[in-house]
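User: Batch of two.

Assistant: Item 1 of 2:
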Amino acid sequence: MPTTHLALEFTDHRIRGALATVARGSATVGDLFELELPEVAEGGAQGAQATTVDAAASVGLALRQVLRGKGGRVQRTSLILPKAEVTTRMVTLPSTDPEELGRMAQFEAERHIPFHPERHIVSHHVVASDEMEGSRVFLAAADERVIDRALSTLRAAEVAVDVITVGPVAAHGALLQAEGEATRERVLALMVVGPESTDISVMQRGELLFSRSIKVARGEDEEAAALGQRLASELRRTHEFTRREYDCPSLDEVLVVGEAAPEHLAQSLGRHLRIPVRPVDLSRLAARCAEGVGNLRAVSEHFACIGEVLLPRPERALSINLTPPAYMAGRAAAALRRVAVATGALALVAVILTFIYLRVSQAALDESVRAHRRQERSLRPHVERMQDQQTQIAIIRSYVDERNSALAILDFLSGVEGMPPRNTETNIPSVRWAVNDFEYDREDGTLVLTGYTRTFNDIQELRQILEGTGFFSRVTIVRREEKPLSHGRGTVHEYVFRCELAQGELPRAREGETARGARRPSHTGAFLEGSQ
């Protein structure tokens, strides 16, 4: 069943959004939109940073009307915060244990938070782990007040948030989709140029090493050359930091995207940096947009939003979620309340249906009882006759199943490993003993066995097996004699055992001693053939 994913990016002066439909593992962007944020009267500042309660309600109402006009029910919502509001850092921690890494990430993030670390929400993603070197971890931390201001707007819009991430992380995912695997083999810089600020990110082998947001944007009359010079200077400072902190090599290429990037900005940056600079290839992202949505300008303006809704979270190179625990707990509690109400309603319906069922089925149950009683009276003579037959069978079985009877002894012998199998034409080499004569005297309490073996040692081993069965109190070798076979086929050893039957209750058969069936072995001919 198709699901709808929503991504909302809070920038300095507007909210951008992207709606995508996910069906059968593939996502398609169906709509892109944006909503202007009002100015705050007392300070002149715009955006989520200074949104008052009234402004949040006003923006939330406008956003709700926009989403209602899009139609459909959203199953997952992502909120993208601007980089200027979030601290990010790639660090190496000396552990690979998930629980220990969570605590270490919290402590490490507090070292890089400039103020009020106690009220920051911290999230981390393990990029790589090695038992010897530890784990490479990407950290993100945001002031809870900043998050609450954005969430207050979304509460007014009646939008529940599942994931809170940051602009460079979403843009990183979009770049991996736009440029493909080629980004994993080079050292790149990504510049997302906005109206008020520019985000600069440095990536090595597909990993987001470092990103920063700078208040460098194009003025109304500023040409591409002047803006290129300013951005080139900031990019050199950013790369120098990553070179010192992360031992980052020289940049292979710079990629530019964003709504405020002038047409010739890439050429201007290339002249100042003396390395290849080009706009991001947006054709792949545009191909995954619905008809009439995916023009290159709209894709460039909604670059981070598109990256967030198109790439499933389990496949992300970086997965950050700065949603406050209290907010998540509130959503869980609300869900439990809804479940409780639904469960109560269902329970009431179940009680009513159960009462109706009991009343309706009572008459059928009474009739069934009466029918069973009539059937019981008709079957009683048959039951009594069967009980008499069972008594007779038990008497007969007491003779057949006697533990020390000749049948029981023969049944045991037929199951001894090394005795001739039922089919004497197979497994002849496995035959070690053969029984030629079986004389059972129940009154005298003796059994005389006559047969053949291959060696004298086999005779002694067979005697020990017979003594261990519990059938006999003593087994005596009456005679053992070596006899030659005809036509020079070697010799066999004839044995005669006198076995005295044990008195009293026989012990239970040991585990694994099962018979193959009661039979009188008489396989001397087969044994002799196997002795060639």
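Item 2 of 2:
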Amino acid sequence: MDKTILKYALKNALDYGKANERAVIAKVMGEHPEWRKNAKEIVKRTKEIIEEIDAWDDDKKRKKLLELWPDVFEEKEKKEELPELPGAVKGNVVMMFPPEPSKYPHIGHAKAALLNYVYARKYNGTFILRFEDSNPAKVEEQYYKIQEEDYKWLGMEWDKVDYISDHMDTFYSIVERLLAEKKAYVCTCEKEKIRRDRTEKKACECRDGRNNRLWEEIKKGAGYVVRMKIDMTHKNAAMRDPTIMRVVDKEHPRTGNKYKAWPTYEFATSVMDGIEGITHRIRSKEFETKNEVQAFMRTACGFHNPVIISIGRLNLEGIEAAGRKNRELVESGKYMGWDDPRLPTLRSFKRRGFKPEAIKEFVLRSGISKADSTLPMSVLESINRKYIEPEANRLFFVPDPKKIVVEGIPKTVVRLKNHPSFPERGFREYVLEGTVTFYVPEVLNEFRLKDAFNVKDGQYNGEELMDIPKIQWVHEGNHVECSVVMPDASIVSGVIEKAILDAKVGQRFQLERFGYVILDSLKDGISFWYTHK
């Protein structure tokens, strides 16, 4: 019984950061329904076993789990393999991801980007990074570079970078052909009338094409639109003669003022799918209502339609995902920037010390289901812990420190391992003797300085292991002040071992009994960003 409980407790702890008692019991009972008569005993032993393994590090948990369940990780990998793409032929798959250069990418964008990228590589196909920059009012030059940098950080490599703005002459030619074939028309109606006609399923008088000669005026900036002729009585409002070209009289960062008329999103993405020969697209289900109209547009333009796979949104519990709200918080100064620890941007996760491999594994685990996912941060943290644990050397850190003086210390050599799983990395050695001042997180009458010796009433009290509190410490003369930026953007101040002065910005550490951190700055004070427990 204990082995079964231990097996599922370890698996649950490694998956979610901390074992959940009820989840473990459910798994145990599921494997051995005959044990239900011993439910009280199972509940008692589950609590005890979970309490025991809570003190273990991930490396010890993983080794023990592999001992009890050798194929656990192979089973998991097989279970989480992505399904096949419908109609995909190796070597002939062309997929893309279309960021708009107007924002910083967040973890939700990463899901769609990585799924398209991973599938393209799975089929030895082509992957295109397509910048959807057809709205000069939104596009900003800085975001082209930002988007590329962030997706490269995730490990993505594209075969081509494409820009809608590079194909404007092609769009103009296609529009002129659609007008000539009477598949589109110039509409001079006001926005309010167009909106009202769509609601009332009423065709406007422009539909007969008498205004098509005004296309040349639109190209010069006249405030008319070009609409695709479909069906004004269609049950899908998106099919009621959608606008495909409109004037956006703003300077574009790549084309300047060369073009005044720009394609709408639906038309731009439809035509680009045809130009690039896209075979499959994976995108958020919020675009499902656009599938029908975009398929019509591609067909009208003479292009084949790709296979569209809709997926659910990916959100993190307790983290605001709304781009507009986050922009307001950043631009108002309430947030410190687009890498603020409270944001779900890739920049934020990078600065906090998350590994790109962990982000990739996390988003791919959610797969191609259409169900929206709101996952707790503990899931991402447990995955990231697996990647950073081996590289994160240990250091002692004391938050909000209090000074104490300990007397009567015989000459004692304290050796603190840099990493418990890698003895070859060495240790920090401190010689303590006589009267020493320590920085500690709390003042107690009796306690043990972790990995050192016991203290009682301010006096050395031997090295024998006793059932007393263990506390972190840094001794005076070996301390430097530092601060830690927490996930809620609060600041924790404290002292840390001087060994940190030999580190480099970007190194990860585990501050024992505090959490994993990444060294953010050594200038103007030592600063870390908190990653997670």
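The mean pLDDT is 93.
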